[in-house]
Amino acid sequence: MTLLPENEVQLWYFKVDEFLKDVESYANLLSLKETARADSFKFDKDRTVYILARGLLRILSGRYLNKIPKKIKFDYGEYGKPGYKFQNPIAFNISHSGNMIVMAFARNCEIGVDIEKIKDDFDVIDIAHHFFSPDEIQTLKALPEQEQVYGFYRCWTRKESFIKAKGSGLSFPLTSFSVSLDVDYAELLRTDWDSTEKKEWQLFTFTTTKDYLGALSVKGNVESIRQMKWHGS
Ligand code: COA
Ligand code: MG
C-alpha cells in the first residue's frame, strides 16, 4: 500500500524544542552542501531549525520514496524552491516559524506551504499596505478590530503559500493576485495574468498549535488533508 495516496496532502508538523536533544543525529543525515549552509547561519537557532528541517525532510522523503535518507539528492528552482533531483511524482514544500516546522507532501501537483507564529505587536494595516492588494486591504479593514490580526495572518499565509507553490519567491508581484480572508473558506479570488488560473488552485488554512496559523496552496485535485503525527525515526 502506498504511504501517500493520490489526491491526499500529508501535512507534518514538528515542534523544534522536542527535537533539540537529537540535533547532532539529524546533522549526520545532511549532505556536504547542506552542512555548509547550516554552518553559515549567524544564529544557533537558525542553524538548529535548518538541520532539523532538512534531517526530517530526508527521513520522510526516504519513507515515501523508499530510499536511504542520506542519499537523496535535491535540486533547486531559479528562486531556491527545493525539489527532488530525480523524476518523481511526489512534491513537497517546507516552512518554519518560531518553534514550528511544517512539511507538506502530495502527488502530481504543485504545492506550497507557509506557517507563521502569530504576533500582535505591530500595526496590521500598516504592514498590509506593503504586501497585500488593495482589495485584500479593504477586506481586512472591514473586519471587526479584534479579528484583524487573524485576518491578517490568514491573508499572509495564503499569499505566501501560493508564491511558494509557484516557486518564484518575492519576484512574484504580490498585488497581481488576491486571496479570501474568510475563516471558513480559503480561495484565490483573482489571478491577473490569467483570469481562469484561480480555478485551478485549492487553498487551505490549518492550525498546528495555539499561536500558529498555516496555509497550503495546491494546483491539482486534493480530496483530503491529513495531519500527520511523528512517532520517531
Ligand atoms: N519557493 C518555494 N519554497 C522555497 C523557495 C521558493 N522560491 N525558496 C526556499 N523555499 C523553501 C525552503 O525549503 C525554505 O526552507 P530551508 O531554507 O530551510 O530549506 C523554506 O521554503 C522557507 O520557507 P518559510 O519558512 O515559509 O520562509 P520565509 O517565509 O522566510 O520565506 C520565501 C519564504 C523565501 C520562499 C519567500 O517567499 C520570501 O522571502 N518571503 C518573505 C516573506 C514575504 O514577504 N511574504 C509575503 C506574504 S504576503
Ligand atoms: Mg514563511
Outline the structure in words.
By secondary structure, the chain is an alpha+beta fold. It folds into 2 domains: 8-108 and 223-229, Alpha-Beta Complex (Ribosomal Protein L22, Chain A), CATH 3.90.470.20; 115-219, Ribosomal Protein L22, Chain A (Alpha-Beta Complex), CATH 3.90.470.20. The protein is 31% helix and 27% strand. It contains 6 helices and 11 strands. A 4-stranded mixed β-sheet has the order 4-5-1-11, with helices on one face. Strands 6-10-9 form a 3-stranded antiparallel β-sheet. It has a two-stranded antiparallel ribbon with strand order 2-3. A hairpin with an 8-residue loop joins β7 and β8 (188-191). α4 runs parallel beside α6. The longest helix is centred in the first third of the chain and has 22 residues, at 44-65. It starts with 7 loop residues before the first strand and ends in a 5-residue tail after the last strand. The mean pLDDT is 95. Magnesium ion binds next to loops.
